[in-house]
Amino acid sequence: QVQLVESGGGLVQAGGSLRLSCAASGSIFSNNAMGWYRQAPGKQREFVTTITSGGSTNYADSVKGRFTISRDNAKNTVYLQMNSLKPEDTAAYYCNLVAISRSGLKYTYWGQGTQVTVSS
What we know:
The chain is elongated and about 50 Å long. Strands 2, 4, 5, 6, 9, 10 and 11 form a 7-stranded mixed beta sheet that branches. A 4-stranded antiparallel beta sheet has the order 1-3-8-7, with no helix packed on it. It is an all-beta fold. It has no helices and 11 strands.
C-alpha cells in the first residue's frame, strides 16, 4: 500500500516563502508523476503542479514563476518551494501520486493535506 505524508505547511505573511515536502512509501511503480493540488474553503480542489519521474514539470498559470517543484527519486520525495506567497494561495495543499503499472493500469494516491495560510 502506498502512503503519502506531507509536511511543511504553516502561517506566513504575504511575500514570504514556504517549502512543502511529500514522502511516498510503499511499492511504487517507476513510471509515475508526483504533484500538488490545493483546496481553499468553499472551492473545488485545483491543480497546482506536477513532476514526472523523468523530471518534466507542469504548473498552473497562477503559480508560474513563484512555485518550484522538485523531487528526489531515491527518497520518493517531492518538494514544493513556494515564494512570493499571496493571500489567495491560502488553502489545504494535497500531495498526489499517479503511477502506471507495466500493464498500463493507473493508480492514484493522495496525502492527508497540509494547511498553508498566507496573511495580508
